[in-house]
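Researcher: Checking consistency across runs. Here is Glomulin isoform X2 again:
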Amino acid sequence: MAIEELRAITQRCQALQEDAFNGEDFDLFQSAGQRCLEEGHIAQALEIFQDEKNKLCNPKELLLGLLEQVEDACGEDISPVISLLLQPLQTVLMKLGDKKAYSVGLALSTLVNRISTLPVPYSKDQIQQDPHGLCRCCSSLVTFAKPFVAEVVKRQEHSKELKSELLKFCFSCLKYPLLRAHLDQIPKDTEEHSLWLFATDILDFLWLLGEPLSKVFLQQGSTPHALDEQDLSQDDVLYCEDSRACLAYLLFVHYIGMNYFPLVFSPSFLLQCNMTHIEMLLKRMEESMLSKGLDLFENCLLRVEDNSLLHQYLEIKSFLSVPEDLVKVMILCPIEHLRKKSFKILQLYIDKLNAEGKYKLFRCLLKTSNHSGTEGYIIQNIKNQIDLSLKTGYGRKWFSGQRLIPLLHTVLSLPEGVETDLLQNSDRIMAALNLLRYLIIKDPEYENQTEIWTELSRIERDFLKPLRMGLNMSKAHYEAKISSTKQDRRESHIKTICTITAGGKTLPNMTPEMQLQVLQSALFTFDLIESVLVRVEELIEVKGKVMTEEQIGSNEDI
């Protein structure tokens, strides 16, 4: 039996002098202890380890032995092994006196590395049940680190190396597990949950160790052009991008540690400082990262007043790249609630910019989005800003007159002329036609505040006529396809299968009935576009006649 073998080896080793204890004895002791853990004799093994007679040993050798046990643990054994060995590890480290800094750092990094292999609980049920023991390990880690933090607080000038190791530990914990933890899944009535308390304790540690959260937040982090760690300062290595992003998320989304943060910064400055974190998080693929980036962006924007964010901020790269990343999330993210949230936040961002900022952002997104639905959405926003300008005068400098013309040229055009794929660009085309219809109705020719009447001949040449030709060609093509499909179906009494390939991949087979539905849906879209186009053409004709009659009347008066 493993426990009896461990007792026998322990008793034999107790009789040896320290210099007579060799590597073979240690291997036997370690092997017997490992078998005890594997067979579940944890309590008996701990009793043997805690025997006063067995506490007389070389602390450094025992430390290495205990850490080896931690490193060897895997799978379901990680949590119980760490919980079992933390107290002996703490005792050994406290025996090392003033020279414990390196050993404490080694122990903490070993523990964090092992814990980082445990999956972070995802759902509310997983967070409450903690199936892999990650939450229990986090609670135990805090208890383990507290006496060393207290020592630094008590002896600041004599514990600089220990402080450095503890700071590394805190920032490692921010990176994992806290950056990947789903704190928003923790029920609001259970703020005493171990993950929430762990986040609070880590930020408390930073404060106690004399590391102001404002300093960490304002730190720019390491440059991507640095070749290796020798090119970086100690702060650059310490304040890694992931850790700082997590700190910002805890501060501004959950307000953890906010009592340590000075309330002297303007909302726009906080947004500016957080944009690098938001950009980094939105480029990650994991749901936990994306959701944190969206939450952080939303909370920063909610602090900013509408129409107050100056256009000069768009000269900062992240203020343009972040909305572009939002568009990518809206289009490509497979998770529906994140797509919807990114859409909501993009509108919130637009609302916060001043008129010139909105104008420049619209031009940028129209060039970079390459997605008809997004372009249609931006065009709708342009229409709203023009409407606001005509009704109240707000933003008139940018959404009327000469400055509006380049924007209208971009909107009221077909990307590839007559050959433009009208189905693929239907959202953009419908939004553009609705904008043109609105301008013709709301901005009469005698006022011409938007210069729409000045540019009408060009719009007809570059947009309306090519669109009419494209519609006629597309409708004729699809009507012929429908007739052909119906004829084939009548001639063949067997349901033939239509195979479609997209992007080199074969899609599920389509029956002729399904193919007909797709073709008829396309034809319906063309009819919808044509109905708005006809209305625009009628309005132009009617307005033109009215103006001609008015001009004739005025000439007769003369």
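Researcher: Does this match what you'd expect to see?
Model: One thing to look at in this run: Residues 221-233 have pLDDT under 50 and may be disordered.
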